[in-house]
Design brief:
Elements lengths: L12 H23 L3 H17 L1 H12 L3 H27 L2 E3 L8 E9 L2 E5 L7 H12 L3 E5 L5 H14 L5 E3 L4 H8 L5 E5 L2 H13 L3 E5 L4 E5 L5 H13 L9 E7 L3 H16 L3 H6 L9 H16 L3 E4 L3 E2 L4 E2 L2 E4 L16 E7 L2 H10 L5 E5 L3 H10 L4 E4 L13 E2 L5 E2 L1 E2 L1 H7 L1 E9 L14 H13 L2
Parallel strand pairs: 3-4, 3-6, 4-5, 6-7, 8-9, 8-15, 9-14, 13-14, 15-16
Antiparallel strand pairs: 1-2, 2-20, 7-18, 10-13, 11-12, 17-19
Helix pairs in contact: 1-7, 2-4, 3-4, 3-6, 4-5, 5-15, 9-10
Length: 484
């Protein structure tokens, strides 16, 4: 998600690259000061950030609205509230997270103790995406600060109003040798990726994720990749289809469908298919309006981020319909305003365009199944998804789904809500991501876990020192076997 758009910053790439290097050197010189900060000092920085966000939340809502026409309440629910929740959770628990963790020692090491220390990685890079441009930059930034790192970050150029807001916010809250933000497009990203950061954190698509991983490999640096994928939904014969339809419509069409954990397609049991589709159509009418003009005028429905995104998603719909899919509702759009109606397709088959990759738009393909084995075979053939959703009242069936599939996260009888829980790790698996964060998991992602053993008394291990012969050898051999 680092595709270039015209940017004033990009007109002087060599000047910007020089500034990036200067800031990196300043942060590297300051990183040991930051790594030695106490919990109280880190909490003070986080509280200052929280106060600034609260004071500017209306300004943020306006910036995101200009980029997406996103409703103010949706900004609160998906951008501001999760960020404040992450901040509050971190402030509350950081002192305990920073404490060394004592671990046990085997009998052979009697007389010693052991613990794990959590140490800052150093200078870290955060590359954020455009779909949730505030929250998906702030969440890793919070974790990186909590772990005692210095941070360089870059928002997406696809959301210029939010990017400018973020630049002002970061500049007003942090000195540049602690946290610095760089606006720009591809050239800015490439200049950042040339530097030997201690940790690379990227949220975006797998294609760019591979480039970030290659950059990290040059320096043998650690990396976190938060990617995407086709997150499947299973609605079985025991499901409450009305509740499933309502929750899926919310999770699919929020942010105009541009959510990395959005339900990407649905497998519904053939016995409940018509009831499910009817319920979906009724919910869309209730959410966004009965007629197409009403939906297009709705203040509660976001737009696609740019013209290229609109063309891509509209083409997926058109090609799928040409191949035999049926438009149950939606399918229409307006290119100049980047509006694409909330769309439900039935009669979808796995070889259609909407099933080729992550849709990332307000289109929900629906397929039917008779046997769960059909569903498992389809999911197992594809890449490992970022999320999986199952709607069922049958606990054994739910457990069976988990045994036959894998995903970064999963939700039963709802969607998206796992992302809002700071006590759960958030991340993907395989093509959908590498590593995780949120809460203590984010703190650990941006920390090095240093293993420490301390010898307090005479060591039993001395009996194993050379020379390896005679009675000493015999005694040591027996002792080691007794301890196995």
């Amino acid at each position: 998600m680092l595709e270039a758009v015209p940017s004033a910053v990009e007109s002087k790439p060599s000047l910007e690259a020089s500034r990036i290097l200067t800031v990196f050197q300043a942060q590297r010189a300051h990183r040991w000061t930051m790594s030695r900060t106490t919990a109280a000092e880190r909490v003070a920085r986080l509280k200052k950030l929280r106060e600034a966000i609260i004071a500017r939340r209306e300004e943020l809502a306006e910036a995101i609205h200009q980029d997406f026409r996103k409703p103010a309440l949706e900004v609160e629910l998906t951008e501001v509230h999760p960020t404040l929740e992450e901040l509050n959770h971190t402030v509350k628990h950081l002192k305990s997270w920073m404490k060394p963790t004592r671990v046990g020692t085997p009998l052979l090491l009697a007389g010693s103790s052991a613990h794990v220390r959590y140490e800052a990685r150093g200078v870290v890079l955060v590359l954020a995406p455009w779909n949730y441009p505030f929250q998906l930059l702030m969440a890793p930034l919070i974790a990186a600060i909590a772990a005692g790192n210095t941070v360089m970050c870059k928002p997406s150029e696809k959301t210029p109003h939010t990017s400018r807001f973020l630049a002002r916010l970061i500049r007003d809250v942090f000195p540049e040798n602690e946290v610095a933000l760089f606006e720009g497009g591809v050239e800015t990203a490439e200049a950042l990726l040339e530097l030997p950061f201690d940790h690379f954190f990227f949220t975006g698509n797998p294609r760019i994720g591979r480039k970030v991983m290659e950059a990290a490999a040059k320096h043998l640096s650690s990396v976190t990749l938060e990617l995407g994928g086709k997150s499947p939904v299973i609605v079985d014969e025991s499901a409450d289809v009305r509740a499933a339809a309502e929750r899926l419509a919310w999770g699919k069409f929020i942010n105009g469908g541009q959510t990395c954990v959005a339900p990407d397609y649905v497998f519904v049991h053939e016995s409940r298919a018509q009831a499910f589709v009817d319920a979906l159509k009724a919910v869309i009418t209730r959410f966004y309006g009965e007629t197409e003009p009403e939906r297009q005028a709705s203040p509660d429905f976001s737009r696609l981020v740019d013209a290229a995104a609109w063309r891509r998603v509209k083409d997926l719909v058109d090609r799928s319909v040409a191949a035999g899919a049926k438009v149950e509702t939606g399918g229409l759009g307006d290119g100049p305003s980047r509006y694409l109606a909330p769309t439900v397709l039935t009669g979808v088959t796995p070889d259609m365009a909407v099933m080729e990759g992550e849709i990332f738009g307000p289109v929900l393909p629906v397929m039917t199944f008779r046997s769960r084995d059909e569903v498992y075979a389809h999911i197992q053939r594809g890449d490992k998804p970022l999320a999986l959703y199952v709607f069922s009242q049958d606990k054994r069936a739910i457990e069976e789904v988990f045994r036959h599939t894998t995903s970064g996260g999963a939700v039963v009888n709802n969607v998206l809500i796992h992302v809002a829980n700071p006590n759960l790790p958030f991340g993907g698996v395989g093509v959908s991501g590498l590593g995780n964060y949120h809460g203590v998991y984010g703190f650990r992602t941006f920390s090095h876990e240093r293993a420490v053993s301390v010898q307090w008394m005479k060591s039993l291990a001395a009996v194993f020192f050379p020379p390896y012969r005679g009675k000493a050898q015999e005694w040591a051999s027996r002792a080691s076997r007794l301890m196995e």
